[in-house]
Amino acid sequence: MEKILILDFGSQYTQLIARRVRELNVYCEIVPFHKIPKIDSTIKGVILSGSPYSVNDTDAPMPNLDFCKGKLPVLGVCYGAQLMAKQFGGNVQPSKTREYGRAHLTYIETNNILFQSISHNSQVWMSHGDTITEIPSNYEIIASTEDVKVAAYHIQGEQTFGIQFHPEVYHSTDGATLLKNFIVEICKCSQSWTPDSFIESTIAELKQKLGNDKVVLGLSGGVDSSVAAVLLHRAIGKNLICIFVDNGVLRKNEFESVLEQYKVLGLNVIGVNAKDQFLDKLEGVSDPETKRKIIGGTFIEVFDQEAHKLEDVTWLAQGTIYPDVIESVSATGGPSATIKSHHNVGGLPDFMKLKIVEPLRLLFKDEVRRVGKALQIPTDILARHPFPGPGLAIRIIGEVTREKVAILQECDAIFINGLKTHGLYDSVWQAGVMLLPVQSVGVMGDERTYESCVALRAVSSTDGMTADWCHLPYEFLAKMSNEIINKVKGVNRVVYDISSKPPATIEWE
């Protein structure tokens, strides 16, 4: 399979570069600068990422680029461009002012293939503290801005390019065109990495890898585990056994409805009602991290108990996706592997002695959904909002009790169903209700009440790393408030959370 290699120097934008390459139907992999893999014929080009470092720092990443420079097409982005300028005889100095934000190209070498079909005065996004003040003798400038003379260069006699701006961000208006010029026109990638091709190759690999072995998979009801399950089912059929655990803090009727959905998909699913086991252990616990650990540890216990009832299981399947893999390998020398959090059946103890299979580990979340669509998984599964592994336990601020869970399930059901019936659900990335440890005075009829307050939360995001609060219509919010207060005994006040991430987080705990 042909691929583009992205050498990561720790930039916040590295994952975004990968997403833009993938959008061109070209497979790419991110690797830390200090862990360069063996180069073979499948690698069609290399992209050098940006970095929080300056190339003049004493501890700046300085890999030997002999493996690619002059041998493969190379595109250096920001730090990557400065690295190649400095290493091969140029000069990089601190800018007099930090160059951050929008700029416009004032000069383009239109005959250079990297800039074909890109307009003069094209807007680009700058984010750097250093600037290239001198380029080596065999480098030619192919783009400039008003403040940055060397906005882009080409090394003569090589398919090697450097750009000082970030084509991967939305604000670089012709960034997608530039990346396509590099990936398709220069690297000659065939753009054949599609959901259908991924499904075909993955099922073939799973069949070869698993043979007649049995696999156990912990379903969460979410997109990742559902798509992983269907891929595995296509490969090994009834040899896949899925376990779906009711931890007592799922949404209202979610256990039953999710099990019904999976039956429609033809999956072999064991439903485990472990509500009391979880809720008993959560009794009297208020600390958010302790709640998470209790839910994670209890999940492992329940899953292990159920897995041991099965015969001849040799594999554990996980819904690990590519961001989990990337984040487990730091560009500055972090751990080489990280076990996924409990809600995707990670952190399982060594004594289970199962081999791991992760059919989605190459995909970003949006790619998982596209693969799911190609697998004809129902939209109501693929379009589901993310839901935290500890469930409603971290939306109940403070101690979790059965009474609080019941109240929050009712409030949550009204809000989520309201978003769906008013056509707002698909424009929201994640939504939920928080039950606050606050009671306030209210009036219902002729009686004064002293009941709980809930906060509605709805955010827009692409990956959960940052999020903006959604500007839901006032009329809708008024309707939700009225319905919750009138229908849910124990709640007399509703507020709407208008905090973005950062500085707030999406969840309250």
3D structure, described in words:
It is a single chain. This protein is an alpha/beta fold and 509 residues long. Helix content is 31%, strand content 25%. It has 13 helices and 18 strands. The chain has a nine-stranded mixed sheet with strand order 2-1-3-4-9-8-7-5-6, with helices on both faces. Strands 12-11-10-13-14 form a five-stranded parallel sheet, sandwiched between helices.
Radius of gyration: 26 Å
Largest sheet: 9 strands, mixed
What does the average pLDDT come to?
89
**What is the helix fraction of residues, given as a range?**
25-40%
- Tertiary shape: globular
Question: Regions with pLDDT < 50 over 5+ consecutive residues?
Answer: 332-347
User: How large is the share of residues in beta strands?
Assistant: 25-35%
| Class inferred from helices and paired strands | alpha/beta
The helix tally amounts to 13
Order the strands across the largest sheet as they lie in space.
2-1-3-4-9-8-7-5-6
Alpha-carbon distance between the two ends: 42 Å
DSSP strand tally: 18
Secondary structure elements and pairings:
Layout: E1 3-8, H1 14-23, E2 28-32, E3 43-48, E4 74-77, H2 79-87, E5 91-108, E6 123-134, E7 139-145, E8 152-155, E9 160-163, H3 175-186, H4 195-210, E10 214-219, H5 223-236, E11 240-246, H6 254-264, E12 269-273, H7 275-282, H8 288-309, E13 313-317, H9 322-327, E14 355-357, H10 365-374, H11 379-382, H12 402-421, E15 430-444, E16 447-460, E17 468-469, H13 474-487, E18 491-496
Parallel strand pairs: 1-2, 1-3, 3-4, 4-9, 10-11, 10-13, 11-12, 13-14, 16-18
Antiparallel strand pairs: 5-6, 5-7, 7-8, 8-9, 15-16, 16-17
Helix pairs in contact: 4-5, 4-10, 5-10, 7-8, 12-13
